[in-house]
Amino acid sequence: MKIIFRLILTCWLLLISSVLLATPLRLGITSATVRGQYALLEEWRDYLQRKLDRPVEFIFRESYLESLELLKQNELDFAWVSSPAYFENSRQMSLLVTPLYQGQPFDRSYLIVPSSNHASQSLLDLKNKVFAYVDPDSSTGYLHPRYQLLQQHQNPEHFFKKTFFTRDHQKIVAAVAIGMADAGAMSGFAWDSLARSRPDITNQTRIVTRSAPYGFPPFIARNSLSRSDFNDMQRVLISMNQDPDGIKLLQRLNLDGFIVADRKLYQGVYKMMRRIGDL
Fold this sequence. Notes:
Blueprint: H1 2-21, E1 25-30, H2 31-34, H3 38-52, E2 56-61, H4 64-72, E3 78-80, H5 83-88, E4 93-100, E5 106-107, E6 109-114, E7 130-133, H6 139-151, H7 156-159, E8 162-165, H8 169-177, E9 183-187, H9 188-197, H10 199-202, E10 205-210, E11 214-215, E12 219-222, H11 227-238, H12 244-253, E13 257-259, H13 267-276
């Protein structure tokens, strides 16, 4: 009996050692995608480690640009980035997976104002106001409102009295709710997710408009990553909605799963970038 126990213990220790000694897979996350759910991300990391049978590190950065730079320098293996950030670098990066929200691989841009503002009915009603953006590389929190202004023959550089970046979709809601900004643009997914957990905050804002759907911010990988590492991570993410623990994590992330998407999904973002001159 003691011999069997020792064999089991030895095998277990060898298994743990092999996992600990394996090179970690590094995944970049930004403030815009974290939404303050650090405990949840730790559980997600642990889940990925179990499924991949190797260490996983989440590397946090303030902006999409910082994550992209780390990918280019081979200091990250994967990153969850904005749609424009992916499209600008699609020749250097590979599309890993796209999240599903409400069954579709899409997000929308929400234009929000304080709930006390009953007058504003469109972006044009906000001329000479203080406006909050998320990140220069955000489609929903930056690109879309600027594109809409250009479509209305307005200059985005001079339309608002003042603009600033929050680097975080939830902070757009807070900035508008407390009056730091008169309005802001953000991810509809982020607003909807916050409304589930903190309706006391979102109730202090009002959605003025919802945009057409755009490709959901994807997970990308550096081109130099080995095919086996790419396939392993892709497989684990795609199969999350078929696994009880994965389903629980997806529910808390407010996502339905992940799919292998095509670059064509991001044509709407490409169109906006061409119009604005970012490409």
